[in-house]
């Protein structure tokens, strides 16, 4: 019996050795393309980067000048967090004067992800000499320049990208974000006219002036508003800031004060966390607070999406009280005509927003009444530094329970960037 057991173990060991030998022999006889495909499967389907790296290296031993495999190996080291090994692979390819578009993109991406933005731009500039129409290379160059706070150069890169393809979604998203930072200063003035057919006898007139300064941590905006409502005048002062937390997140922080309660709320505050998400999505969540004779708290959330020349956004305000929760929803669609400052927009929704000039209607009772709104806006620029806007909005509002009236708004705006 002991002899039989020993014999079985020997046979099993021989069988395992034979299988291993056959497997090794099979791998040795695989072509570089077959090993490359196995490496891709291990990386993309199984996320097994060590195995994928081993297969890619084996493929390169068979075909040392197979550039696609070498670039893929550099990407694998990048994804696996081995920055030094990735850089060694890409440096060797750079010295060989490889001109493949994917090589420049992979090498520059490594440097960009590791905050070596100047090096990334240097690589991209060399790649663009061979591939001047590459949308991916121009996109990454704009991102790297923006991360280095070289906003004017980043804006030029985006303009080139959109000239190549006006419907490039990432380019449209970048153009909008970089536009807000491309000039250190901006002054603006807006005028809003409101007419009511029933709710109030007098028209409303609101004039706002603003000064925006781009700082190393984000934009800061000072605002002053003058209003004539209910045949009475009042003023309000506001400050807003958009500090950046990372490449993905930034904050909105705002506060305002007025000594003319009823024309404006006495105090207002607001904070939101904003995120630039993958696939050209963006999101926001935060609160707004208004104080007239008592506090009114509103919680807001929004989601936005860039798609070719379009920007879609859906925002809600939720206002809880002791008895129920009031909801406000607004949908916005923008269609960009040229750059980030030239677009037409359409808007529709329900409820009253604290962001609107009519926010003095948001006392402790009227936010519960039903409001429907629809409107359009046109923005255009002249020589990039002169920005004009005109918008019209129609409201149908229940200003007393079961009693509705109409409101018509026209808003004109001008901003000078410098």
UniProtKB/TrEMBL annotation:
Annotated YaiO beta-barrel domain residues: 184-356
Q: Which residues form the signal peptide?
A: 1-26
Q: Which InterPro entries match?
A: Beta-barrel_YaiO (IPR030887), TPR-like_helical_dom_sf (IPR011990), Ycf3/AcsC/BcsC/TPR_MFPF (IPR051685)
Q: Which UniProt keywords apply?
A: Repeat, Signal, TPR repeat
What name appears for this protein in its UniProt entry?
YaiO family outer membrane beta-barrel protein
| Organism expressing this protein natively | Kaistella montana
């Amino acid at each position: 019996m002991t002899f039989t057991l020993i014999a079985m173990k020997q046979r099993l060991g021989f069988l395992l050795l034979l299988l291993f030998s056959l497997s090794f022999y099979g791998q040795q006889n695989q072509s570089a393309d077959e090993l490359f495909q196995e490496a891709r499967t291990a990386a993309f389907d199984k996320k097994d980067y060590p195995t994928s790296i081993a297969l890619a290296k084996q493929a390169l031993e068979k075909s040392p000048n197979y550039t696609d495999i070498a670039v893929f190996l550099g990407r694998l080291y990048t994804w696996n967090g081995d920055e030094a090994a990735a850089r060694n692979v890409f440096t060797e390819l750079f010295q060989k004067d490889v001109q493949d578009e994917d090589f420049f993109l992979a090498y520059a991406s490594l440097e960009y992800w590791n905050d070596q933005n100047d090096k990334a731009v240097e690589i991209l500039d060399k790649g663009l000499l061979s591939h001047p129409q590459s949308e991916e290379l121009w996109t990454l160059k704009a991102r790297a320049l923006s991360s280095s706070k070289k906003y004017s150069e980043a804006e030029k890169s985006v303009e080139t990208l959109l000239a190549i393809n006006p419907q490039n979604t990432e380019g449209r998203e970048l153009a909008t974000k970089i536009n807000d930072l491309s000039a250190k200063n901006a002054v603006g003035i807006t005028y809003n006219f409101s007419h009511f057919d029933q709710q109030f006898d007098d028209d409303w007139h609101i004039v706002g002036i603003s000064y925006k300064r781009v700082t190393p941590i984000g934009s800061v905006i000072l605002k002053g508003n003058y209003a004539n409502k209910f045949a009475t005048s009042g003023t309000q002062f506001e400050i807003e800031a958009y500090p950046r937390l990372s490449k993905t997140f930034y904050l909105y922080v705002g506060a305002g004060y007025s000594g003319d309660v009823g024309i404006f709320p006495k105090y207002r505050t607001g904070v939101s966390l904003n995120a630039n998400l993958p696939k050209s999505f963006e999101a926001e969540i935060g609160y707004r607070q208004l104080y007239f004779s008592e506090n009114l708290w509103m919680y807001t959330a929004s989601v936005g999406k860039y798609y070719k020349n379009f920007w879609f956004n859906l925002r809600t305000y939720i206002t809880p009280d002791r008895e129920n929760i009031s909801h406000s929803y607004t949908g916005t669609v923008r269609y960009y005509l040229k750059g980030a400052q030239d677009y037409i927009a359409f808007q529709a929704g329900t409820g009253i927003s604290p962001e609107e000039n009519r926010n003095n209607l948001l006392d402790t009772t009227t936010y519960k009444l039903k409001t429907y709104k629809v409107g359009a806006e046109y923005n255009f620029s002249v020589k990039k530094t002169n920005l004009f806007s005109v918008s019209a909005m129609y409201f149908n509002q229940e200003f007393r329970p079961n009693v509705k009236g109409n409101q018509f708004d026209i808003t004109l705006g001008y901003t000078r960037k410098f």
